[in-house]
Design brief:
Order of helices and strands: HHHHHHHHHHH
Mean pLDDT: 74
Radius of gyration: 32 Å
Low-confidence stretches: 1-5, 15-21, 26-38, 54-66
Shape: elongated
Number of strands: 0
Helix content: over 70%
């Protein structure tokens, strides 16, 4: 009986510890979700700021200067590069723009889709399709909605058309290389290699953005907004499209004392006690 009671107590303590660990896990998940919600609000505030800036009329110069501190920098930087462009510099900038070009992104996406289909990684396939081409399509709709003109539409170096906000090359590079990072980093154990890969991807995106500003295809605020929009979209996709963990119910075993086999000594003792009764 004493052994059965101790076993029952141990079973209850095990069940209590499991419940406590479950509560701790839920608290951590809620805390992480709260932090993510706070980050999303900050990114949304910045994105709305740039959308408001881009949608304002260029004629309202005083209002634009009050609302957007980057308005002056936008035009000064664009004007400086326009005055210092040369044929050699333009050729270099066009090479730096290629990692964000739609043709290059399409080739990389095609190879990634083939590999994911071959590996039968269906969740990853859905994620990369929604994250990269899905958001690039939304960016084209954003350009039509904001209707912001490019810094320069005339010149021997101009090879673009359409509207400026937000930078399509920059958001494409942010989405593609950011999503590839999310796929590759978990498989790399070395922290040093992870940092190097992250630095390389970030530098690639920055070079694409710089080339679009220097060529006069986009303002500084167009590039910053594209990076913010792309990062925000990747965070949303990572949160909403992550695989759901199935809850596993851990059975709690309650120990029950089994009857021990009767030996000759115990049988004799029991017979004597019955005779005495």
């Amino acid at each position: 009986m004493a052994r059965g009671a101790s076993s029952a107590r141990s079973g209850r303590s095990t069940e209590s510890s499991i419940q406590n660990s479950s509560l701790v896990r839920k608290w951590r998940q809620n805390s992480c979700a709260k932090n993510l919600r706070i980050r999303y609000r900050g990114y949304l505030a910045l994105v709305l700021f740039f959308v408001l800036n881009a949608s304002l009329s260029p004629q309202s110069g005083a209002t634009l200067a009050v609302v957007n501190p980057l308005a002056g920098a936008d035009h000064q930087i664009a004007g400086w590069f326009h005055a210092h462009l040369s044929q050699a510099f333009v050729n270099i900038l066009r090479v730096l723009s290629e990692p964000g070009a739609a043709e290059w992104i399409g080739v990389v996406l095609f190879v990634a889709v083939i590999l994911l289909v071959w590996k039968r990684a269906w969740p990853a396939l859905a994620t990369i399709i929604i994250a990269v081409p899905g958001r690039m399509l939304l960016n084209e709709l954003l350009k039509l909605a904001v209707h912001r003109h490019r810094p320069f539409l005339d010149g021997w170096f101009v090879d673009w058309s359409g509207y400026s906000f937000a930078s399509g090359h920059t958001i494409g590079a942010t989405l593609l290389y950011g999503q590839l990072l999310l796929f590759v980093l978990p498989a790399i154990k070395s922290k040093r290699r992870q940092r190097l890969i992250i630095l390389f991807a970030a530098m690639l995106v920055m070079l694409v953005g710089f080339s679009r500003i220097a060529l006069g295809a986009h303002y500084l605020s167009d590039v910053i907004a594209a990076i913010l929009l792309g990062t925000l979209w990747l965070m949303i996709c990572a949160l909403l499209l992550r695989p759901r963990r199935q809850r596993v119910v851990v059975p709690v075993a309650i120990a029950v004392e089994e009857p021990r086999p009767m030996t000759a000594v115990t049988a004799e003792v029991m017979s004597e006690s019955s005779v005495l009764r």
